Amino acid sequence: MKRKDFIILLWISLGTSLFFFLFFTDEHSLKSFMLTLLISSMYSFLIGIGNGFINDFLNKKFPWSEATTKRAIVSIACILVANFIIVYFCNYMNFVVFQKNATTEQFFSGKYNFTNWFMVNIALLISAFLHAKGFMEELKKTSRKEVVEQKLIAKSANAQFETLKNQLDPHFLFNSLNVLSSLIDENPKQAQKFTASMSKIYRYVLEQKDKELVTVEDEMEFAKTYCELLKTRFENSVDFIFDVQKEDYRRYVVPLSLQLLLENCIKHNFATSSKPLVIKVFSENDTLCIENNLQVREQMKESAGIGLANIVQRYSLLTKRNVFIEKSEDYFKVKLPILMEKPNVISAQPNDNDAAYEKAQKRVKEIKSFYSNLISYCIIIPFLAIINLTTSPKNIWFYFPMLGWGIGLVAHGMSVFAIGKNWEDKKIREILEKQNKQ
């Protein structure tokens, strides 16, 4: 327990000792007050520290956030046994050792059964309050931790996506300048034409690189323009075939994905007029396919692998669907998922768990409602008991609200932890399974 808890227990001991000393003690002397303070401290510290130790131990073994139902059952069993032992020990020390109002035989003969029973109930109420407080504190910690984790995940996803997108700008410019450099020596007129076309294409790169997704139609128009640029350099050495279904035009793909894959086809394969490189772009089973005949050229240096890896990583942040790669002796094919709708990078993952999140949120509200009811019970019933025993000790009436409210509290607890929504969901599944089998 923390230092703060000890200070609270000390103030409780002082407050209860003053209350009993002023209203229930005949002899108002320093010795009498010190005895009352000793007895009050014994009850306060043993009940408080005992339940605090149980709560800390159970928090390590059965955290509320991981095993709520199991923790509730274990907590009830532990506080019943522990408080029964603590109260009997405190009452024995109080009546037999300190005040000497009874002998050991009288204490265990049944003379103090009502007192023991009453004190056990008070201890259980205090214990329930302490455990409920512990539950609420852990619930707040867990909620704060989850919020921080989600913020970190969101920031990480944003940063990762921005990094991947920022690769495209210099990557495209570097490769285009390489092509332009080659054309300047080979065909200066074509180099001028290439420069004019490159400015149009680069404008599209700047416009689209900050978007998560673009329509297939926009990407196809850009790809055709880019292919014309490649034709300027390679002429009859490269052929392009486009066969994308019109219904796929309004769907979505990762921007600049076609440009990167077309560039890869050129970079990793040789192309001549006698052996032209044929690149096909077509749609197939909700995928956009880029296929080329395999004419692998010898690489002077190892490729950086930015193109395809960039596309795969960006798709992984947007959807659970994978980018597929097929390779044989004759061809190389990449299949890009065509997405039906435009997801958000940050909310894509949580949206898949909306139903589970709402269910968990509802579950937390049910548990909080039960513990609010329990805390109210722990505060009001002892207050009513003190009023009853102070004003009319011969007419015990506080049993009725205690039992009535207690039965309602037990029913509430059973509905939350034992036979609540989990039981209903289980029965619904069983009925549906039986109907499906018939």
From TrEMBL:
GO terms for cellular component: membrane. Keywords: Kinase, Membrane, Transferase, Transmembrane, Transmembrane helix. InterPro entries: 2TM_dom, Bact_2-comp_sensor_kinase, MFS_trans_sf, Sig_transdc_His_kin_internal. The chain crosses the membrane at residues 7-24, 30-51, 72-94, 114-135, 370-390, 396-419. Residues 159-237 form the Signal transduction histidine kinase internal region domain. Residues 358-432 form the 2TM domain. One of its GO terms (molecular function) is phosphorelay sensor kinase activity. The keyword Glycosyltransferase does not apply. PANTHER family: SENSOR HISTIDINE KINASE YPDA. This is Histidine kinase.
